[in-house]
Design goal:
By secondary structure, the chain is an all-alpha fold. The chain is built from 11 helices and no strands. Helices cover about 75% and strands about 0% of the residues. The protein is elongated and about 100 Å long.
Length: about 325
Amino acid sequence: MAEDFVHELFETAMQETIQEKINNGASEEQIEELIGYENCNNIYKTLVEQLSDDSVKSIESIMYEKVMKERGVTDEFLARQNQKWGEAFVASDALYICIIESADSYRDYVIETHGQEVSYLYHALANIHGRALQIYLEIMCLNKNGFADGAYARWRSLYELSIIATFISKYGEKVAEAFVKSADTEDVREWARGAECFKNYPIKKKISFNAIQSECGLETKEWKKEYSFVNKLVHASSQGTMYRLGADTSKAIPVGRSDSGMEISAVHSAMSLVQITKLFLGVFSHGDSTVAVLTFHKWIDKIIEYYERVDEKHFLDKR
């Protein structure tokens, strides 16, 4: 049965106060003043203030008990999550580890053969690659903890980095230099104006991400569709609110962790990371890196296979 404890407490207190005043011979005018809007409003505010103070003390006295209990529930979920998705997560983690090892080897090679002072293109792509690796780990962390929507939202940033990296790689040193130097300015995307494709772009018109995306050579109808949807998911849209990755077919509003919806961000993030890795490892010719990139592309197929296996085993009947 639905309850409103505060409202009931207020009504009981008012009735008792009125009865006490009547018993003490209060006049009709005094009673009307007591139950007037302004007086009742002040009494209600005082009651709410006192109850909230008491609640703060109560929460503080039981917070460890409540939180430890909730953490136990979380630990149980994480164990089930790993039981279902464990092999797929390992496949994703393996990609990260192998890319890190290849990137370290490549950097050593570049420094030994070209010295510390390398091109702006190398410097720009190295930093984009480092940031991409960080975001990839964040995506996997969110997936492992059951936050599919959050993981997919972080993929948005990884996809944007793949577009920027592809654009810089396509248009070369001049654009890479502008990108690096714009880090100490308020410039968001004006660094791209030096590219040949924007030589006739209106001076007063700001360069948008969509404009860069259209000129990078990586844009496809499918990726644009995915990017459009993830934008809705990130922002306060009706689509991102009503259609959640971790939601099932019930009418319950999903809150907290979910064990479904991990596949899309895991696979997409692997593709985006490998794209950025390919560009970074391709700045200078290096045979070992060429083999590594081809291996990573093939490993994406393995990742897809592992996630589809889990999806078919545990979630196909829920769709």
